[in-house]
Amino acid sequence: MTPVAAVTIFLAVLSPFAVWYLWERGKRYTELMPGGLHEDVTLPYEAEFELYHNALSLCSKKMRICLDELAIPYEGHHIDLIETGSYENIGADYLAVNPGGILPVLVHNGHPVYESHDQIRYAAANAPEGSPQLVPADPELEKEMHRWVDKASLLGDNPLETARESAGGAAPGLTVPLFAAMIDKISYRSIFEGLLFHRMRERPMVFIVLKTVGLERLHKIKPVMRVVQSCLKYMHRHLDELEEHLTTTEGPWLLGETYSLADVSWIVLFERLRETDYDHVFWGNGKRPLLEAYWQRLRERPSYVRAITAHNHSTIDRGLTRLRETKQRLPALRQALEEN
Questions:
Q1: What is the DSSP letter of 128?
Q2: Res 5 pLDDT > 80
Q3: Which of 67, 120, 123, 250 is 20 to 30 Å from 129 at the Cα level?
């Protein structure tokens, strides 16, 4: 076969894929959207409030808790992430809702609100008359509330960059072991879609590495372990600060007697540490007793059952079980993930 013939055959084989890719890329416009309300965007809607969310997404949990606490009825749309089965969040339909491909999105009368820390503030300000107040009237208390909200929030495209300043920024690094435990049942073909269309291609690349190496050998990937260890160290510092703060409050919540958006933000962070099997690392057996008691009070609120427990996902439950069993079977893995 001549070189010209070989090139011709290669192009003939490649052309259909190239045409398909360009067609799909044209439908999947991506752009990071600024936080807050976008009145310039109008989406199809049926209910006054609608929520695009995911069972695993920490920020989705936060938004569901907030809406439940505010007694705001909403129409929910569950969108899969690759961790829960597929890259629905980078499909053309969802990118029309949020070109950033990020969850959740709150929609109010057809207008989207992006970024969960902005969404919970927006929902509290626009809740129906008679809804519980989650923002204190006292300006000093409100200022303190915003400080704790930010402390628990995932900020920016790469929250890990804020791990030193924010417990929310440290959470993604501690979720890596759970990702490694969940990704074994996700096909390479599904992950490959992310390499083609995800706005941040390093994310599907990480999943490919986790799937290829496997949970059992996770502690041997030095760059990954540096991230986990760093986030473990910072989370200890953030929770020490929270434990110290709880010694100064005169009530059951972060602002004393006032349950607020600060508590909404921290309940989901504790839940993430529980479902990644880090709860025993950060509290229990006499460690941070005030934090442990605070977490128990948060779990006793009806919103925890309705917004968290009711949205359990089989993939997450299986991943947590596998993570616990593997750490018990492999002490070196457990030590690398839990000790610093």
A1: P
A2: no
A3: 250
